[in-house]
Amino acid sequence: MTVNSFVKKALALASALLLSASCQDLTVLMTADTTEAAKPIVNPKHLSQEEKLAQDVESASFRKAWLDLGKVADEYKDVLGGEDKSLFHRRSKGLLRDAFEVVASDIGLKAYDEIRALQAEQTKLSDEANELKANRWGYPDSSKNPFAMTRAKCDKRLTEIDERDMQINARINVQTGVLLNDLNRYGKIIDRKYLDYLLVSAEGEDVFQLLNTATLLKQVQFAIRKQMEDGGGNAAQVEHYVGLYLVILKGWEQAHQVGLENIEKKFLPKLAEIQKDAEQNTRDTRELLKTHADEASHLEANLRISQNTIEVSKAYHEILVHKQQDLKESLERLKGKIAVAQNTYRTVKTASGLLKLINDSSQEYEAILNFDPPLLDTIYADQMLDAFKEVSAQLKK
């Protein structure tokens, strides 16, 4: 289906949607005929049983038209080159999760996971609220069906969503504070505003968002490095510094992979489609030149445009192929860097583990030897002797 056919279908459904919302005849939902006069608005309390039934049917048709319009919008995005970006969404969130696994403790990581779960719930509630608001005027004031949605039920649910949204925001605020304190447990490396920005950036769905997240992580890594240069670092921060380097390289690797996927599955196919359309336009224009000589100036201009389009698309095809090869070669080099970074991180992590073990065991050892037990005074003997004397005196009586 072409773009124009999608546009016509969307306009027809949009017209039907508006007409249905105005309580016009149901046949417009099938024909999108905008010429029919609107029915007068009647107080629902004065409707007969048949009229109420017709209103329920109209409301259902309104909702169906709305859903159909949404489906057409999705199809239209596909025609324009849209695609499922959930994979990129998961990648970018995974990148930040890897970073927090390096620099956060179990407490901070738990807070981060809860923030993510709350944000997912918030998104789901927002989608539900948007759907309810869009359909609200299509719901009847009342219904004998206890399971049917009415405006009163819709408003009640919207209020519940708003209340839950406020609770979620409050909890996210608390857990973000917990995460911030945890990340700064060895010294300040990030402030609240920057952390909020980092959490938002992790919702990226493409190459640029992945690289943006990696760039933000570079700033965190730089802050850790500065602390170490200023003499405020420790073995744990060395581990964090090297670990973040590895995570950033992984983010860059993911950007390479996404870029290669885009060239193979998006740009090259779209370019081939454009070239095919231009070739067809060229053939059509030449046919028109045979029968419409009076329009030769326009047709010849169109022909030149189509021919240029074909030439440029062929040239850009070669450029994309070269870019694809460059990305593959860059990815191979990057894999070598990642292998070295992984080895370095494991080395530092092992050494850091040894230092922690020595420190922990030394602290235990020192704590045991330095324990100061209480004094045991001979007062206990005096007390026992006094007690025996007292008992002996009683027995002699």
List the helices and strands and how they pair.
Elements: H1 3-21, H2 28-31, H3 49-79, H4 86-103, H5 106-135, H6 151-183, H7 192-201, H8 207-229, H9 235-291, H10 296-369, H11 379-396
Distance between the termini: 119 Å
Helix fraction, binned, reads over 70%
Major β-sheet annotation: none
Low-pLDDT parts are 6-46, 61-66, 68-92
Structural class: mainly alpha
Number of helices: 11
Could you say which overall geometry the principal axes of the C-alpha atoms support? elongated
Chain-averaged pLDDT = 78
* Multimer state: single chain
CA-atom Rg in angstroms? 36 Å
Order of helices and strands: HHHHHHHHHHH
Fraction of residues in β-strands: under 5%
Strands, total number: 0
Q: What does this protein structure show overall?
A:
The structure is a single chain. The chain is mostly helical and about 400 residues long. The chain has 11 helices and no strands. The chain is about 80% helix and about 0% strand.
